[in-house]
């Protein structure tokens, strides 16, 4: 009996040792993101409205490999910058029955500086949650007389890249009070609801287990400040809601649709969890 | 011609004579391998950039043969010894016969 106890104790020590080693290497990397000599804020105190659910907000950049982080630190190496260039071509391209381009009204894309940091937001006139994608398509249909771009159209992600890039370095400051309050509550409810056969909520991975591994994947906090992201495995840009579809699908659930009320509310809520982190323009992730 | 092909290069503005400088090149291109099928099951024809060259003042620096396994938006980073001021000329050759060019000059500091 005594022998058995010792064996168990040894096994327990071994398991503990392994777990400890695993956890040590799984910590988010302590590093500073500097692009063209400008430091980008990738860590911030957790937003007060979260009541300590996140002691510190951290960009997903801290959870990626050395090579991936380096790729984002140089605009030439960042494959996402290709899409910013393409977005600029689209910005100046006339489309639709009104014979207008984005530039006809807004002049340079610099006019959009700051927008990425405060969206999604509730539109004062319509009372709907608007992100950059919905603003772009609204402009196309109501002012340009052009057709809306599809949810997964490359043109839409190109334009999102261009507009997000104008706000690089600005701190996320998504409003959650006033008209946004009901959407915030709805998004919060979805965030903490378990979906799918695997019964996982957003919080199961991105609040309770960030920094740990889920199989080979290093779980981040699921912050959206870096979006659109260039995902190396897809070799293309992904939008926040495109990412939500992937996440919900991975719980083996039927997903909400891009642009649905549910995902709009969730995007607003998730963005508010990263208030204080800088917009990264176009980020690089695995 | 493949859509949205845009070459980009990064060359330092100046270098010391005899210095090896780092050159970075990137070209946006889908690099369709010819192995994939569309939703109807038809093979999507191969369309890649099959050769990339870099010359400095007419003298070849690098000449790369490219094959279908190379991923979209091919990126090359390499070094070149600079002994004199001059111009780097970069050329990409597409399967469809298109040739994309870019050039950058460098001074001796």
Major pleated sheet of chain A = 3 strands, mixed
Helix content of chain A: 40-55%
SSE string of chain A, helices as H and strands as E: HEEEEHHHHEEHHHHEEEEHHE
Main sheet: strands, sense, barrel of chain B: 5 strands, mixed
Most extensive interface: pair and counts?
A-B, 7 and 11 residues
Main β-sheet, spatial strand arrangement of chain B:
2-8-7-4-5
Please give the share of residues in helix of chain B. under 10%
The fourth-level CATH homologous superfamily of the largest domain in chain A is: Cytochrome c-like domain
- Classify the beta-strand content of chain B into a percent band: over 45%
Question: What Rg of chain B do the Cα atoms give?
Answer: 16 Å
Query: What's the average pLDDT of chain A?
Result: 89
Low-confidence stretches of chain A: 5-24
Number of beta strands of chain B: 8
CATH fold description of the largest domain in chain A: Cytochrome Bc1 Complex, Chain D, domain 2
The CATH class of chain B turns out to be Mainly Beta
**How confident overall, as mean pLDDT of chain B?**
91
What's the helix count of chain B? Answer: 0
How many E strands of chain A? 11
Task: Give me the side-by-side strand order of the main sheet of chain A.
Answer: 10-9-11
What's this model, at a glance?
The complex is a heterodimer of chains A (286) and B (109). Chain A is 41% helix and 10% strand.
Question: Would you give an account of this structure?
Answer:
The complex is a heterodimer of chains A (286) and B (109). Chain A has helices spanning 2-26, 66-72, 81-91, 102-106, 115-118, 132-142, 154-166, 181-191, 202-206, 240-250, 261-273; strands spanning 33-35, 38-40, 43-45, 56-58, 121-122, 129-130, 213-214, 217-218, 229-231, 236-238, 283-285. With 286 residues, chain A is α+β, with helices and mostly antiparallel strands. Chain A folds into 2 domains: 25-78 and 172-285, Cytochrome c-like domain (Cytochrome Bc1 Complex, Chain D, domain 2, Orthogonal Bundle); 81-166, Cytochrome Bc1 Complex, Chain D, domain 2, CATH 1.10.760. In chain A, the strands form 5 sheets. In chain A, strands 10-9-11 form a 3-stranded mixed β-sheet. In chain A, strands 1-2 form a two-stranded antiparallel ribbon. In chain A, strands 3-4 form a two-stranded antiparallel sheet. Chain A is globular, with a radius of gyration of 21 Å. In chain A, 36% of the residues are buried. Chain B is mainly β. In chain B, the strands form 2 sheets. Chain B has a 5-stranded mixed β-sheet with strand order 2-8-7-4-5, with no helix packed on it. Chain B has a 3-stranded antiparallel β-sheet with strand order 1-3-6, with no helix packed on it. Chain B has one domain (6-101): Immunoglobulin-like, CATH 2.60.40.10. The model of chain B has no long low-confidence stretch (mean pLDDT 91).
